Amino acid sequence: MVADYHAALARYDPNEEPGFVSLEGYLAGRLAIFGLEACGRELSRECFMDSLNTTGVIDLDGFQLKFGPNDNQGSDSVFLTVVGTDGEYRQVDRFDRQY
């Protein structure tokens, strides 16, 4: 999924740097496309919400989301990161390291 995001970003603006905000927007867009395609020409708010809430696991190229009647979170995953002294993002795997 991240490789697809990088490819889409490069097609849209080859000079744009990937980042967390645009990655989240990409995921939101992919999720919207899923709901729109599920409803087709019979698009309504009810159909869109039902498509998200009743599908079960929605797989966006390996990133899985699941919604339900009492669960609007989609993903419970947390990706801890820090910005290093060089300005680059790094995933945190331990808190006793320097990044």
Tell me about this structure:
The protein is an alpha+beta fold and 99 residues long. The protein has one domain. Helix content is 41%, strand content 20%. It is built from 3 helices and 5 strands; from the N terminus they run αααβββββ. It has helices at residues 2-12, 20-39, 45-54; strands at 57-60, 63-68, 71-74, 81-83, 89-91. It has a 3-stranded antiparallel sheet with strand order 1-2-3. It has a two-stranded antiparallel sheet with strand order 4-5. Strand 2 (63-68) and strand 3 form a beta hairpin. Helix 2 (20-39) crosses helix 3 (45-54). The longest helix has 20 residues, at 20-39. The protein is flat, with a radius of gyration of 17 Å.
Question: Main traits of this protein?
Answer:
99 residues; three-stranded antiparallel sheet; alpha+beta; 3 helices
Secondary-structure blueprint of this entry?
Blueprint: H1 2-12, H2 20-39, H3 45-54, E1 57-60, E2 63-68, E3 71-74, E4 81-83, E5 89-91
Antiparallel strand pairs: 1-2, 2-3, 4-5
Total strands: the figure is 5
The topology string of helices and strands comes to HHHEEEEE
Give the number of domains.
Answer: 1
**Unreliable runs, pLDDT <50, ≥5 residues?**
none
Describe the largest sheet.
Answer: 3 strands, antiparallel
* Mean of residue pLDDT values: 88
Secondary-structure content class: alpha+beta
